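Q: What structure does this chain adopt?
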Amino acid sequence: MRKSLFTASALALTVMIAPACASKGFVRESVGEVNTKVDTLGTSLEETQEATRQNTQRIGEVDQKAEAAGTAATAARTAATEARTAADSAANAARTVNTRVDAVETASRRLIYEVTLTADQGNFSFGAAALPDSARASLDEMINRLKA
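A:
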């Protein structure tokens, strides 16, 4: 009986342990799937690293262009400041010239006409204060010319 109990125990133990063992085919299939996933992830990682390298290079190029643009903007600002200074100087010079032109124009409006009437032309009578008609006509003619 001992032998049959031992045999029954050994058989029961074998039935319980046998399904827990993995076959070579199952291991190869499982390892193959894992290897495929690892290879896929490795490829994906390499592609990501390459994209990162390219992006880093592009960022460097963009930084260089931005720096060049900043330098150009600074130069443009300097040129604009110089142009504004020159324009302000020109405006001041124009105001000075305008002031001089106004002064000349004002002076040119003050025309002085000088008419000299001699005794022959004016026919002044000796001791008389009244202006003769011929002298008055000469003065009226000069006034009409000035008005014109």
